[in-house]
Design a protein that fits this description.
The chain has 315 residues and is α/β, with parallel strands linked by helices. The protein contains 10 helices and 13 strands. The chain has a 7-stranded parallel sheet, with helices on both faces.
Length: 315
């Protein structure tokens, strides 16, 4: 049994990670300030004697004993990370320093959940880990993407100077059950709009592309990175099957049986036009590739959203 800290453990990805770690018999401490995380995501774990929830903001120091630290804490959708940009950059910088401090003090292995946003609006396609990115340092998304770039720098510096055993994963678009209804992400937006019979909002002409990875696949990749000796990353984790936003909207309408119509709105500033991971490194170093088909993942996600709407969760 390994004692493992998961910051952001009540969030969308963090709660799925906690589930999997518990199923393998580990002791899990979920740390979350519940800004975008929710107790509903971890309610079923609270009776597990190997699970502990600590309500805490990672921008403040914390003393914990552990052997591994998964640092996922940070608002990850534009709606939430732009709500309080200063808080977002503090979470990425001070929060990462604090969680690296936990790992350093306890000699724990540390994994940073970074993001494909470090590539900005990429001039290279698909994106490989050696690409430095095309990021606007003063744009509306910079609190998040520059914040994560600094978090990567800190993680590497602690490894080289502080003798912390660190890992970096760069997460591309991920979807699945427990996504927030109001997070502004395209999958959750489309599903909620389709289930409520509302117009589906597509920005621009809908020809911008994304690659969508199901959360179970992502968790498997994150854990493989943490547990691979001698491999530090950064490594892209995402589904390389690229599709347009317009095609996704049509797919959601088809799978929900909705009568929603697609309407177009102006593109937001600095919205990347193309995003697709090159996962050669993940395949070679981790033996990892996504296994869940988009239709299968969307079907499971839609069922979860339908259930939550039935239970009266507000969208």
């Amino acid at each position: 049994m390994t004692r493992i800290v998961v910051s952001g453990g009540a969030g969308f990805i963090g709660s799925h990670l906690c589930d999997t770690l518990l199923s393998q018999g580990h002791e899990v401490i979920a740390v979350d300030n519940l800004f975008t995380g929710t107790k509903r995501n971890i309610q079923h774990m609270l009776s597990n004697p190997n699970f502990e929830f600590v309500r805490h903001d990672v921008t403040q120091p914390i003393l914990l004993e552990c052997e591994q630290v998964y640092h996922l804490a940070c608002p990850a959708s534009p709606v939430h990370y732009q709500y309080n940009p200063i808080k977002t950059i503090k979470t990425n910088v001070t929060g990462t320093i604090n969680m690296l401090g936990v790992a350093k003090r306890t000699h724990a292995r540390f994994l940073l959940a970074s993001t494909s946003e470090v590539y900005g609006d990429p001039l290279q396609h698909p994106q490989v880990e050696t690409y430095w990115g095309n990021v606007n340092p003063i744009g509306p998304r910079s609190c998040y993407d520059e914040g994560k770039r600094v978090a990567e720098t800190l993680t590497v510096n602690y490894k080289e100077q502080g003798h912390v055993d660190t890992r970096i994963v760069r997460i591309f678009n991920t979807f699945g059950p427990r996504m927030l209804f109001n997070d502004g992400r395209v999958v959750s937006n489309f599903i909620v709009q389709a289930l409520k019979g509302e117009d589906i909002t597509v920005y621009g002409e809908g020809q911008q592309t994304r690659s969508f990875c199901y959360v179970d696949d992502l968790v498997r990749g994150i854990m493989a990175t943490m547990n691979k000796d001698g491999f530090y990353g950064p490594v892209n984790l995402g589904n390389p099957n690229e599709m347009t936003i317009m095609d996704l909207a049509k797919r959601v309408i088809e799978l929900t049986g909705s009568r929603s119509k697609i309407v177009k709105r102006p593109l937001p500033q600095d919205d990347p036009t193309r995003r697709q991971p090159d996962i050669t490194v993940a395949k070679r170093e981790l033996g990892w590739t996504p296994a869940v088909d988009l239709n299968e993942g969307l079907t499971k996600t839609i069922a979860n959203f339908e259930e939550r709407l039935r239970q009266g969760e507000s969208a």
